[in-house]
Write a structure and sequence with these properties.
Layout (H helix, E strand, L loop, with lengths): L1 H7 L3 E11 L7 E9 L8 H15 L10
Helix pairs in contact: 1-2
């Protein structure tokens, strides 16, 4: 959350965990699904506004060794 808030700055309004799945296989992986809400008070955001911020968050998350990003 801290990393996403840092990268998202004032445009990232909230981060909510919406699902957690623990696999039954021997890999002991746990999957988390998050909802990121972006908002700007003075204007409507477009994909062109959001995509660079969202991509920066994903890029930062990929630097964490034990983390795998699925799209």
């Amino acid at each position: 959350n801290k990393l996403a808030k840092k990268v998202g700055k004032k445009t990232l309004e909230s981060i909510n965990l919406i699902d957690r799945f623990e696999g039954l296989d021997d890999k002991n992986k746990i999957s988390y699904t998050y909802r990121l809400t972006y908002r700007k008070q003075d204007t409507t955001l477009t994909e062109n506004d959001i995509n660079p911020i969202h991509n920066s968050i994903i890029e930062e998350l990929t630097t964490i060794d034990s983390l795998e990003i699925r799209k």
